[in-house]
Structure formats: C-alpha cells, structure tokens
Design brief:
Elements: H1 21-32, H2 35-39, H3 41-47, H4 54-79, H5 83-90, H6 95-128, H7 135-143, H8 158-176, H9 179-206, H10 211-219, H11 229-242, H12 249-254, H13 263-296, H14 300-303, H15 307-321, H16 325-359, H17 363-381, H18 387-417, H19 421-431, H20 437-466, H21 473-496, H22 509-521, H23 535-542
Helix pairs in contact: 1-9, 1-13, 1-16, 3-13, 4-5, 4-11, 4-13, 4-19, 4-20, 5-6, 6-8, 6-16, 6-17, 6-18, 6-21, 8-9, 8-16, 8-17, 9-13, 9-16, 10-13, 11-20, 13-15, 15-16, 16-17, 18-20, 18-21, 19-20
Membrane topology: Multi-pass membrane protein
Family: Belongs to the sodium:neurotransmitter symporter (SNF) (TC 2.A.22) family.
Keywords: Membrane, Symport, Transmembrane, Transmembrane helix, Transport
Length: about 550
C-alpha cells in the first residue's frame, strides 16, 4: 500500500467518536478492569513475594505496561482505524498483525461469554446459597455437569446455555447502538456500579473474623523473591494482561478519539486506576480468605486459590460461612459480572470494527455478522459437559501465544522494521501533557521486547517439558497449539482478501503531521498546556 494524499480524517471511522475524554477513560478502564483483576492478581501477588511483589509490579507498570498503552493509543488515534486498518496504514504487510490481534479477540470473546454467564447465575445463586454445603461438587457437578472424559462433546447444559445466550443478546444490543449510545452508556452505568459494589464487598470482607490473617499473608514481604527472575516475569505478565494492551482493544478505542485529546494523561489515569483496583481486589479477596482459613482452622496458604477455583468454589464457601454472607455474595458476583461484561464489550468491538472497515459496511451489519458467528461458535463449544476443558486450554494458549507473541511481533515491526516510534512519539507529545521522548522509545523498542521474549521462552520451555494441565498431548496439541496456529494462518488469509472498493486504506503521514501541528500551535494557553476536549465535545458528553 503506497501513501497517498487522502486526508486521514475524511473517512467513515471519523463519524463515530467518544463524546468526551472522560467517557473514553471510563470505557478504557472498563476494558482493563476485568475478571483477571479480581481472581488473578491477588494470587499472583501472594505467590510471588507478597508485599515485596509491589516493587516488580510497579516497575512493570511504569517500564512496560504504560509505555505499551501509550503505543496503542498513538497507533489508534493517529491512523484512525480498526486494528487491521491502522496497521495497514503503517505498512501494507503489517495488516496481518492487525488480523492476528483481531482473531485473538475472537477466541477470547467466544469463551469469555460463558464465564460472564457463570457470574450472572452465581449472582442469583447467592440469594439463597444454592450451592448448599458442597460448593465444589455443586459447581463442577450439578451446575457444569462436567464430564470425566477430556474431549469435545455436545451434551448441552441448559443452566449454562440460556444465560450465555442472554449475555450475547445484551452484548449485541450494546454494540449495535454504537460508540456513544452503546459502549459509552454501558460503561457509564456499569463502571460506577462495579466500583460501589466492590468497595462495599471489600468493607464487608475486612469486617470478617480472621481478615487480618489474610492481609498479613498477602502483604508480608518476602524480600528474597526479588532475586527470582520468574517473579519479575510474573509482574510483567500481570500488568500486560490486565491493561488490555497488545491485542487491539486500546487501538480500537483510541481510533474513536477526537484529535484534541490528551493521550498520555489519559493513559496514566487508566493505568493507575487499573492497578488501584487490582490492589483493592487483593485486599478484599485475601481478607475473605483469611476468614475462610480462620473458620476452618487452617492456614491461608491452604485455602488460597486463583481463577475459577477462587471465584466459584472458595468464595461460595466463604459466603456460606460468613455473617451477612448473602450480601457478600451479591456484591462479589455482581462485581464479577459487571467487570466481565464491560471487558467483553471491548473485546467484541475489536472484531466488529475490523469487519466493518474491511467490508466497508454499516455498524449494524458488521455487528450482526460478528455476533452471529461468534455466538454460534461460543454456544456450540462452552455450555456443554466438556466446555470447561476447551476453555481452560484456549485461555492458556491464546493468552501466552496469541497475545504475548502477537504483541512481541507487533512491537518489533513498529519499532525496528517500520521505524515509526519517532513519528508516534512526536504525535503523543504534541497532543499530550506528559511527554514521552527517547525514554519512551527505549522502553517500547527495547525493554518491552526483551521482557516479552523472556516470558515466552520460559513458558515454551515449561510446556515442552511438563505439558499443560495434565491433559493428553493430543488434546493440547489440537486445541492449544493448533488453535494458535489457526490464528496465525487465519490472519494471513484475511490479509490476502481484498478490501472493499469503498474502504479507504490510504494515509498521508505529512497531512496528519500538519493537522496535529496546527492543533499544537493553536492551543488556547501556552504550547506546553495540556489539550482537553473542545467545548462542543464536552457539551455533547454532558447531554
């Protein structure tokens, strides 16, 4: 694709914009704050040095997470398109990297829906503690009806199928309404609810007997852990996954920003808000685990868990034993539901935007196409007696070899092959209050690739030596490695398909630089004053 003189803003994507910077920040936080913040971070911190983990965690946030967040913002806002279109405007061959990230979102979206459905059902179950005296047996037996045989079957579980279908219907309605009427309004409703409910849950947890034991277990520092390279790797991994960087979400959301938006200032707010929520989640979760250990007469280390085991087994146990347990259950699973839903909206929007740009079709048509395909695959695979096995392998491999590997290749391509970091740095600096410069370029072009490479190499070695999850090698090969290979091949195939004749894939770097420079020199105050959304934008947001 050669660069032409077509103006970058004279295109279909420019029609849809977030009504204000604050709305964008709320949507970005809604995407970043998801299931992993609640059920992954507390255990990762506990297992990797407790209070000492905060040091590598903050280093990873500042040295890799926020710089990569800035990179996604700069690409999305400068090149004004979905992930494939934005990368294609950088260089034609890089379109495949955009489709790689889009297909990662496709895979995550199809299984994320079933977890949101579980959270919705457990929100209801909390009212009468339907799991009874055996939360473990209820979840895996009565609720999921999990098969003993690890395979892909099609014995559907109605108690999961129907709420999962409802989740897809609600997601469809939100996305078909568009950026402001759908995505923005959903976040304006669900994010305040999430914050209020989660703070209330944390307060309730802190009042439980034994809560102090849980907090001591989480925050007592193990300083020797700082000498373990795997602890630093775990910190980078947690920051990377929780910030929603590297798989198209923030590129897509940033493409809906108006030119007069403080990108780096927004990124700092999103990054630190996300990490603050994670620490709050750690406090609430381990206070509750401290109560659980106290009630059972065991140590916190014997009840601490992560992921599905924490959410759907440990917490129901806590709810059954705790004073006002029903209230804690409603608050916890309500928080899980809202956090998962806002993240799922952002994941599916990546795919909708990509299809919309490639085919040059309306939002309604793109949403119908994407949701129909994704929901069909999702409803065939996951609300079944074997769905948990597929979900587990999909989640592990798409996170490690879809997101991490895709991000590594994209960062190297942008930094060292296309050599766009100086251009993107200038773009950020002219529109933002917090300057990037050479330090940011070093972090993105050197530190981030090294950290990602170390994580990937270590994980590949581990899986080659130990396999994964005790599953049969053929099952892991097909649904793990095979799925990742399908993503890469699919990205290449989608790149080879022609763009619609109505699609505008052209981009003029000089015209874009001139437009950004005009904004910079015409600031109302001094050249160094931060840019805010214009008055008309703020008025529209207030309405």
């Amino acid at each position: 694709m050669s660069e032409t003189t077509s103006a970058p803003t004279a295109q279909k994507k420019g029609i849809e914009n977030f009504s204000s910077r604050n709305v964008f920040i709320l949507a970005a936080i809604g995407s970043a704050v998801g299931l992993g913040n609640i059920w992954r971070f507390p255990y990762v911190a506990y297992e990797n040095g407790g209070g000492a983990f905060i040091i590598p965690y903050l280093c990873a946030l500042i040295g890799a997470g926020i710089p990569l967040l800035f990179l996604d913002y700069a690409i999305g806002q400068r090149y004004r398109g979905s992930v494939p279109l934005s990368f294609a405007r950088i260089s034609r061959w890089m379109e495949s990297l955009g489709w790689w990230q889009t297909l990662v979102c496709f895979i995550i979206g199809i299984y994320y829906a079933v977890i949101v459905a579980w959270a919705a059902m457990y929100f209801i179950f909390s009212a009468n503690q339907a799991w009874g005296e055996d939360p473990n047996g209820f979840f895996f037996g009565e609720f999921l009806q999990l098969s003993d045989k690890v395979e892909v079957g099609f014995d559907f579980v109605g108690g999961v199928f129907w709420p999962q279908l409802l989740v897809w219907v609600v997601v469809f309605v939100v996305l078909v309404l568009g950026v402001n009427k759908g995505i923005a309004r959903a976040n304006l409703i669900f994010m305040p609810l999430l914050l209020v409910m989660f703070i209330a849950m944390v307060v309730q947890a802190l009042l439980l007997p034994g809560a102090t034991d849980g907090l001591n277990a989480l925050f007592t520092p193990n300083w020797s852990a700082l000498g373990d390279p795997m602890v630093w790797t775990a910190a980078v991994g947690q920051i990377f996954f929780s910030l929603s960087v590297g798989f198209g979400i923030m590129v897509t959301y940033a493409s809906y920003l108006k030119r007069k938006t403080d990108l780096t200032g927004s990124g700092l707010v999103v990054g630190f808000a996300n990490s603050s929520f994670e620490i709050l989640a750690g406090i609430g979760v381990f206070a509750a685990l401290g109560f659980m250990a106290n009630a059972s007469g065991t140590g916190v280390n014997e009840v601490a868990d992560a992921g599905i085991g924490l959410a759907f087994v440990a917490f129901p146990t806590i709810i059954s034993e705790a004073p006002a347990g029903g209230i804690i259950g409603l608050l916890f699973f309500g928080s899980l539901l809202f956090a998962g839903f806002t993240s799922m909206i952002s994941i599916i929007e990546v795919v909708v935007a990509a299809v919309r740009d490639k085919l040059a079709i309306s939002r309604v048509a793109a949403t119908i196409t994407v949701v129909a395909i994704m929901a069909t695959v999702s409803l065939l695979l996951f609300p079944t007696t074997t769905g948990l096995y597929v979900l587990d392998v999909f989640d592990e491999f798409i996170n490690k070899y879809g997101i991490l590997a895709g991000a590594l290749v994209a960062v190297i391509a942008v930094s060292w092959i296309a050599r766009k970091l100086p251009v993107l740095s200038r773009h950020l600096d002219k529109l933002s209050s917090f300057k990037t410069g050479r330090v940011w370029m070093v972090m993105v072009g050197a530190i981030a690739p090294i950290a990602l490479t170390v994580m990937l190499v270590n994980d590949v070695i581990k899986k080659m030596e130990e396999g994964y999850g005790g599953y049969d090698a053929a099952f892991v090969g097909l649904y793990g490695w095979g799925m990742v290979a399908a993503v890469v091949v699919g990205a290449i195939i989608l790149t080879l398909l022609p763009w619609s004749k109505r699609a505008d894939t052209s981009f003029d770097e000089d015209a874009e630089d001139a437009e950004v420079h005009a904004i910079y020199v015409n600031r109302p105050d001094t050249p160094d004053a931060p840019l805010e959304a214009d008055a008309s934008t703020e008025t529209e947001g207030a309405k």
